[in-house]
Amino acid sequence: MKQKKNVTFNDIAKYTGFSKTTISRYFNNPDSLTLENQEIISKALVDLDYKENKVAKILANGQTEFIGVIVPNLHNHYYSEMLNQILQTYEQFGYKFLVFVGNEHADTERKYIEELMSYKIEGLIILSFTIPSRELADLHLPIVTIEREDKYVCSVNTDNYMGGVQATSLLASHNCDILIHINTPTSPEIPAYGRIAGFEDVCREKNLRHKVIYRDLGSTYDSMKKSLSEILDELEKDYPTEKKGLFISSDTHANVFLNLLIQRYGTLPRDYYLVGFDDSPISTEAVIPISTVGQHIDQIAFEAVSLLVEQMNERKKRRPAPLEKTVHKVITPYLIRRETTEKDS
Amino acid sequence: MKQKKNVTFNDIAKYTGFSKTTISRYFNNPDSLTLENQEIISKALVDLDYKENKVAKILANGQTEFIGVIVPNLHNHYYSEMLNQILQTYEQFGYKFLVFVGNEHADTERKYIEELMSYKIEGLIILSFTIPSRELADLHLPIVTIEREDKYVCSVNTDNYMGGVQATSLLASHNCDILIHINTPTSPEIPAYGRIAGFEDVCREKNLRHKVIYRDLGSTYDSMKKSLSEILDELEKDYPTEKKGLFISSDTHANVFLNLLIQRYGTLPRDYYLVGFDDSPISTEAVIPISTVGQHIDQIAFEAVSLLVEQMNERKKRRPAPLEKTVHKVITPYLIRRETTEKDS
DNA sequence: TTGTACGCGTTATCAC
DNA sequence: GTGATAACGCGTACAA
């Protein structure tokens, strides 16, 4: 089967005259060998061109150093960038990632989780949202979710409420006559709901005229364009003269809305103020750079892996764990003022 | 160490009265058991809640079903979408992917490859371009590269030459007075060079006035904007009245150029025709949808994994392999006509 | 059709 | 400081 048989501890042992045990110790506890013997083994490794075999190591000590990851997709910039940052943590923690794309299909994701379990992953990071956290908790495996329903498991989320507050306050500071938030219908169970709550709270607190427009914009560019075009018509009709401050649920949507305005008026009319969400590339690359609220994706990824590593380490102790309550970390977002709010200022 | 000891073949064997071997056969060659006994074992699996352990399986038969993947980054839509499609092939081939982000640092990538080897990956897909294919070939492992220098290894690439021809022909069909191709300095060794060759060949063949502008546009939006703004100035100066057909190396760059024009003129001037490359989201989301050449990322990913699987299967045969020459598959791109060329038609 | 015995390459537990 | 020996959980000749 195998091309060339790999060099093993046995080969090194024979070559050097030591036992397998000593070779093992050279790697795991070198100080217990004399410097002399370390040298001998070190040389043998080179002579024989030894390559380590982590599979054997895993079977022997049970530590795979694997973390499973399930993302809904990688089209969405948020997910691909999050995966990017998660993978980067290899440098700090040394864990390897087995990645699956769930495509928002619960049973597929369950199958993936089973496969991951068979590879003895030590922990799991979940970005997909089809499987309830209740069910995830039953896996009895260290788990961290990111930006999804997280009642029964540990999680790291953006402070969406604060994001909503920041965006709304920015619009308010420009003295808009009417503040409008456009979003898809959102369950209060998921973190993104905070954006809506933040918007409403600021408006109420400051006693501002406002409105939330809930509408499913679809996932294709055309459906988004169609829905937003309708919304634009409504706004033009309902608030023809008012200075309108729009907080739109994502930069992608904000960009479509902006393009509609440009196509209609050749420029961004003075009575429109726009803020998006995510600080995704499109917010920079749009004809007119879009003000937005950014999530610290790098921090979130790092905190998620940290939180997971903590749990995994706890598991390895002899007295397994005090298993405290589920931890929910929250990362504060940042506001970026760009031209859709700071016009020719 | 371990929470609860896992149920093993031994446990099932004791429970059912069979031997471990029979249990193993139940999974790998069930037909060799009587239906009756299959039932008994099947029931035992449920009773004991058996979960398979692939790590042990690997150590025993050497087949990890792991494929290593190294991408330069995941910011770039092309890479994240390619990874997306690669991961999807799990459904057809069952291979799991260990993914690393190389960040274009050769030594880091070498370290990652070593780590991957220690996990006994069966094959490797390389999208990063820092390590020469000569060196990759020396790993003596099934390898497929995608869209990079591939002299000594198998690869799957887009037919960049054809892409260049398509883009250029489109511009030519609009009777542009001058055709211009903007690109970064590109080595003839990498597939993307074909775009330049295709452009030049079409222009020469049709005897068209043309020019290739080589310029490093940097990687930030601002540097791109700055460089392209300079190029725009040059074009305005050199070809003030000519109908200009621009083939730009990527949609991202084409979008920046488009935005510059819009900012300058409020609309896309009638004497500018633009074609980008990649069919990335920005080409659709731009103020004016950009004509572009699309790569069949799904096909490329599928062919890459297929090609790899072929090599891996060959390795498992008793007479290892006729090891033919390296295979280079080529996928034809598609042209999308959008508003930057098909104006009000 | 089923079982025995050994191997896969490492770590862990004792001894010495 | 070092070495036997037994796990780890499964696959596979070979035998019956």
Automatic annotation (TrEMBL), chains A, B:
Molecular function terms, GO-annotated: DNA-binding transcription factor activity; transcription cis-regulatory region binding
Pfam family, any one: Peripla_BP_3
InterPro entries, per the entry: Cro/C1-type_HTH (IPR001387), HTH_LacI (IPR000843), LacI/GalR-like_sensor (IPR046335), Lambda_DNA-bd_dom_sf (IPR010982), Peripla_BP_I (IPR028082)
Span of domain HTH lacI-type: 7-61
Keywords recorded for this protein, A-Z: DNA-binding, Repressor, Transcription, Transcription regulation
Domain of life (superkingdom): Bacteria
Domain named HTH cro/C1-type: residues: 3-51
The protein, known as: LacI family transcriptional regulator
Gene source species: Blautia argi
